[in-house]
Amino acid sequence: MYLYRVLLGNAFSHLTEEQIKDIMFFPDIPHAIMKEENQDIERICLAESVEGCLTSIGWNRLDTTFQDFMDEEREALRVVILKFDINNLDKKYLLSPEELDEKGYVPDAYITREWWYGLPAKPDEVEIRYLYDYDMSENEYVIPREVRMYMKEHNIVEGDKKFDEIIEKYMENGIEIPLIQRLVWLEDAEKAS
User: Fold this and answer.
1) Greatest CA separation for the chain
2) pLDDT tens across 142-191, in order?
3) CB-based contacts of 59: which residues, under 8 Å, 6+ apart?
4) Domain locations in the chain?
5) Is 118 exposed, middle or buried (0-12, 13-18, 19+ CB in 10 A)?
6) Are 76 and 70 in contact (CB under 8 A)?
7) Would you give the DSSP letter of residue 96?
């Protein structure tokens, strides 16, 4: 299983995939995180999919990056995809989405499937692609873990009146996460036209 990290725009634009593969990435505290997210623990943020990475970045930042760093020649956003083989990471320094959720470090980890790694690491594979378009057709609402556990314990499921009441409360006052889905890479868009 691979865990992914993405770099957008002109990050390492002077380097090839092979050269980027030789770069050691170090844990740090990301500069753009949710205010409810842990602000003290240095980490390398990873996700189980590229879509999860982009959802973690957030649609607002993704749109701004699209506007500011779009490759004018290609009319697409350059994305460096770093792939870390989970078998090559020291498990003692790896926190799963479930652990991040349980410890209250990342309130939307159960949605984005974010992982944290606490040691320096080099990617096992690197891929440079150009994102032409994406879809954000669905939204998720971050529901606090204790509420989700209460719902699970009381078998409150989608379709129940109580479920709808809980979701409605978080739709009014909660954190809305637009899910980044259906990525359209430039090479796929060119094939389709």
Assistant:
1) 55
2) 888 888 888 888 888 888 888 888 878 777 767 777 888 788 898 887 77
3) 136, 178, 180
4) 2-141+178-192
5) middle
6) yes
7) -
DSSP strand pairing (125-135 vs 181-185):
antiparallel
Q: What share of the chain is helix, strand, coil (3-state, %, to 5)?
A: 35, 30, 35
On whether the CB atoms of residues 123 and 15 are closer than 8 A, the answer is no
Cβ neighbors of 148 (< 8 A, separation 6 or more) are 110
Task: Give the ranges where the chain is alpha helix by DSSP (H).
Answer: 17-21, 50-57, 59-69, 97-103, 109-112, 145-153, 161-173, 186-192
SS3 136: coil
Which residues share a beta bridge with 85? 2
Tokens of 135: 């879809």
Helix axes 59-69 and 50-57, enclosed angle (nearest 10): 90
